[in-house]
Amino acid sequence: MAHDLADRKPTMDIAALEAFLSSEFPQAFHPGSGLSIEKVWFGGGRVRQAFREEFIRPGGTISGPTMMMLADFALYVAVLAAIGPVGLAVTTNLNINFLRRPEPGDIIAEARILKLGKRLAVLECSIFSDGVEEPIAHVTSTYSIPPVVSS
Fold it and tell me: pLDDT for 59-92, tens place per residue?
């Protein structure tokens, strides 16, 4: 299945994703958010969250909610890159394992679809501190895809 996904062109490129996200989710994806899409392919993508001081939790590390938000953003980008601009595709499950303590700095998430069905997508995502090879977190998730309504 992974090879089938890798051989296809993304349904939405970076410019189309940015336009859609800016329009549909301006509260989360806007110039001041620090979120950026670095790369997309059919069923996958790599995104970045620029560092901001408010992401630091006691102990001087990036907070868990910041990593969860970035993972969900990366997973949504991966889903949209496969199915197109479907605003009502939603997270139904997200499980995160925190692996290492991230130092203050940008964090990067890379997501990919493991299985894409008509109504559900199963995905995984790895999160990294910028410039560090070992992941700081691993995420698995399921997205619900709304049925196509005929007009």
Answer: 889 999 999 999 999 999 999 999 999 989 999 9
Q: Residue 114 domain-assigned?
A: yes
Residue 72: domain span: 2-144
DSSP structure string for the chain:
-HHHHHTSPPSS-HHHHHHHHHHH-TTTSSGGG-EEEEEEETTEEEEEE---GGGEETTTEE-HHHHHHHHHHHHHHHHHHHH-S-TT-EEEEEEEEE-S-PPSS-EEEEEEEEEE-SSEEEEEEEEEETT-SS-SEEEEEEEE-PPPPP-
- What is the total count of domains within the chain? 1
The answer, as to whether pTM is greater than 0.85, is: yes
Q: Residue 17: is its pLDDT beyond 80?
A: yes
Q: Is residue 151 part of a domain?
A: no
- Mention every residue, 6+ apart, whose C-beta is less than 8 A from residue 80: 11, 12, 17, 20, 86, 89
- Whether residue 14 is contained in a domain is answered as yes
* Spatial distance between the Cα atoms of 46 and 69, rounded to a whole number of angstroms: 14
